[in-house]
């Protein structure tokens, strides 16, 4: 089907024309922000009457806006986000890979019911339980702490699912052979199963990292104190407050977008495949 | 072999405790909390369905429910249509197509919050280029999220910019799973491209399309960050979706009971949607990847 359409030159032109317009609409805001963040502070305001190519291209490129960031509240936000995201990746990998291994390697009572819980937990968007989770976390006295940001996010149904899929693809004989040699299950998981699963480890790390790097609603609710503000929260506050450091806002927003986007670009093939396997089995 | 029997549960314990405490228990907390009231002294008391009864007489709740439903009635079919159009456009071989695919999915790597900030700047009259462009082509500057009639549409636009490429991926996977023999058979039978689309592609895409519609609806019923960041529910309540009402009730009006009552209503809606999703994934008609 695709080939016959491709032979019709008008259809090809229409397809690529439409795609180019759509791709431009998608990329334009991102490209504009990236360039605007490199603008000298004096050029930030763009009166609507002066629309032209200068609206997009700065007269000279400067890193001043990025340098100025270092003296504000942004380094703290970067630090908070990094601590939260990296800790979640480390613990999330261990905890969810262990569970994924159990679902793949063992038969036990209640397996199907427990696996249903796993699936429902990632089909239900996290936002649905933010308010009651806040009640729970404040009951534990955890509000405004790293604990509040990290611990509820460690167990992740999607990651358990991905590890289960991978570990289930390894023949059980493989594990049994090691068992016969006297290895413990923990040893088999850590030194046989995990090293084989590096593509799943890579995608899961990215997913866990992005789940924290991108999260906004939960940090706003659970850790609103400026000392614990993560990057998303710090940036969102800066767009609302009366302020004059627009250059700083451009630079911090662009930086936050890039930190999320670069690992995505590096791993998009793995990432997309895993995502689709989770959505449509 | 007691130890061997326990092994799977030891492996499962940390993750399952996490899911039960931080995903399952909050559902119970929402339901229980929605039936409590807080006195001025801060004491909790059981009030039964009073919070719900009060909600149903509250004009602000009804208006918020209306905004949420309107938002969902527009955004979900819109995102499905845009994502499907994109999927059909990039359902091709070749290096160039691969590059377009990459550009179209780029926004999925931008968080919803940062998308809102990005467009807050992009659409701003003084800071961004878009109003200058509109002046230049003669349409004239617009207020977008600062205008009561345009705010909801602006948020829908931002969410679609972010979401369309993401949902496109699932539909593209669906297109790839249609056996090429089916399309070839239709081609040999002399079907026109339109007939092949309507009679072959569309029926075989029902399941992936339903999946996208349902999963997207679950997310959009809980739409929050752009409202919080760009409009604070305004102007004049025109973007005050239920999730934002739940947030306001707890953190601005210190009415946790009302907040949890709204959360409970949203949770019920979401659980119905998840049940639909599960049925979809288990149904025997198995054309999806």
TrEMBL record, chain A:
One Gene Ontology CC term in the entry: plasma membrane
InterPro entries cross-referenced by the UniProt entry: MetI-like, MetI-like_sf
Keywords noted in UniProt: Cell inner membrane, Cell membrane, Membrane, Transmembrane, Transmembrane helix, Transport
Segments traversing the membrane: 12-35, 83-106, 113-137, 149-167, 187-210, 246-266
Topological category with respect to the lipid bilayer: Multi-pass membrane protein
Superkingdom as given in the UniProt entry: Bacteria
Keyword Cell membrane: yes
Subcellular localization(s) per the UniProt record: Cell inner membrane; Cell membrane
Domain ABC transmembrane type-1 positions: 78-267
Example GO biological process: transmembrane transport
Purpose: Part of the ABC transporter complex UgpBAEC involved in sn-glycerol-3-phosphate (G3P) import. Probably responsible for the translocation of the substrate across the membrane.
UniProt family annotation: Belongs to the binding-protein-dependent transport system permease family.
PANTHER family in alphabetical order: ABC TRANSPORTER PERMEASE PROTEIN MG189-RELATED-RELATED, SN-GLYCEROL-3-PHOSPHATE TRANSPORT SYSTEM PERMEASE PROTEIN UGPE
Subunit annotation: The complex is composed of two ATP-binding proteins (UgpC), two transmembrane proteins (UgpA and UgpE) and a solute-binding protein (UgpB).
Name used for this protein in its record: sn-glycerol-3-phosphate transport system permease protein UgpE
Organism for this UniProt entry: Aliirhizobium smilacinae
Automatic annotation (TrEMBL), chain B:
Gene3D superfamilies per record: MetI-like (1.10.3720.10)
InterPro entries recorded: ABC_transporter_permease (IPR051393), MetI-like (IPR000515), MetI-like_sf (IPR035906)
Protein location: Cell membrane
Keywords: Cell membrane, Membrane, Transmembrane, Transmembrane helix, Transport
Membrane topology: Multi-pass membrane protein
Keyword Transmembrane attributed: yes
Entry's Gene Ontology BP terms: transmembrane transport
Domain called ABC transmembrane type-1: residue spans: 65-277
Gene Ontology terms: cellular component: plasma membrane
CDD domains: TM_PBP2 (cd06261)
Transmembrane segments: 69-91, 98-123, 164-188, 209-230, 260-281
UniProt keyword Membrane, yes or no: yes
Record family assignment: Belongs to the binding-protein-dependent transport system permease family.
PANTHER family: ABC TRANSPORTER PERMEASE PROTEIN, INNER MEMBRANE ABC TRANSPORTER PERMEASE PROTEIN YCJO
Name used for this protein in its record: Sugar ABC transporter permease
């Amino acid at each position: 089907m695709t080939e016959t359409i491709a032979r019709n030159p008008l259809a090809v032109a229409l397809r690529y024309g439409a795609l180019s317009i759509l791709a431009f609409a998608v990329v334009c805001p991102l490209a504009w922000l990236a360039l605007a963040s490199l603008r000298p502070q004096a050029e930030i305001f763009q009166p609507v009457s002066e629309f032209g190519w200068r609206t997009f291209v700065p007269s000279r490129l400067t890193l001043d806006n990025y340098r100025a960031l270092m003296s504000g509240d942004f380094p703290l936000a970067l630090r908070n986000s990094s601590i939260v995201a990296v800790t979640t990746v480390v613990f999330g990998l261990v905890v969810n890979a262990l569970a994924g291994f159990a679902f793949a390697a063992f038969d036990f009572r209640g397996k199907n019911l427990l696996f249903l819980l796993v699936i429902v937990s990632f089909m239900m968007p996290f936002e649905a339980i933010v308010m009651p989770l806040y009640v729970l976390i404040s009951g534990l006295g955890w509000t405004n702490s790293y604990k509040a940001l990290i611990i509820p996010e460690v167990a992740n149904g999607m990651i358990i699912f991905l590890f289960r899929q991978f570990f289930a693809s390894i023949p059980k004989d493989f594990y049994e052979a090691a068992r016969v040699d006297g290895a413990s299950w923990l040893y088999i998981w850590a030194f046989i199963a995990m090293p084989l699963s590096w593509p799943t480890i890579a995608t899961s790390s990215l997913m866990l990292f992005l789940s924290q790097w991108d999260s906004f609603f939960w940090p706003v609710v659970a850790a609103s104190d400026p000392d614990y503000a993560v990057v998303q929260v710090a940036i969102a506050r800066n767009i609302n407050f009366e302020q004059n450091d627009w250059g700083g806002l451009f630079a911090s927003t662009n930086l936050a977008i890039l930190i999320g986007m670069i690992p995505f670009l590096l791993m998009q093939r793995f990432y997309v495949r895993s995502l689709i396997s989770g959505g449509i089995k | 072999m007691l130890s061997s029997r326990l092994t799977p549960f030891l492996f499962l314990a940390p993750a399952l405790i996490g899911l039960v405490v931080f995903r399952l228990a909050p559902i119970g907390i929402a339901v229980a909390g929605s039936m409590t009231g807080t006195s001025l002294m801060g004491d909790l008391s059981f009030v039964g369905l009073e919070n719900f009864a009060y909600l149903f007489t509250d004009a602000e709740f009804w208006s918020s429910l209306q905004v949420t439903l309107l938002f969902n009635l527009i955004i979900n079919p819109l995102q499905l249509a845009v994502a499907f159009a994109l999927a059909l456009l990039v359902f091709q071989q070749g290096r160039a197509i691969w590059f377009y695919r990459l550009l179209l999915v780029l926004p999925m790597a931008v968080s919803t919050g940062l998308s809102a900030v990005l467009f807050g700047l992009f659409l701003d009259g003084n800071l961004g280029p878009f109003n200058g462009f509109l002046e230049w082509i003669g349409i004239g500057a617009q207020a977008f999220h600062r205008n009561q009639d345009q705010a909801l549409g602006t948020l829908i636009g931002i969410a679609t910019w972010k979401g369309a490429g993401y949902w496109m991926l699932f539909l593209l996977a669906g297109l790839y799973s249609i056996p090429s023999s089916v399309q070839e058979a239709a081609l040999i039978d002399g079907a026109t491209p339109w007939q092949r689309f309507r009679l072959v592609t569309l029926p075989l895409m029902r399941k992936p399309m339903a999946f996208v519609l349902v999963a997207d609806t679950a997310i959009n019923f809980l739409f929050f960050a752009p409202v919080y960041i760009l409009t604070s529910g305004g102007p004049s309540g025109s973007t005050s979706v239920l999730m934002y009402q739940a947030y306001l009730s707890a953190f601005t009006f210190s009415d946790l009971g009302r907040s949890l009552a709204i959360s409970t209503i949203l949770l019920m809606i979401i659980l119905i949607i998840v049940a639909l999703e599960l049925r979809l994934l288990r149904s025997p008609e198995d054309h999806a990847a």
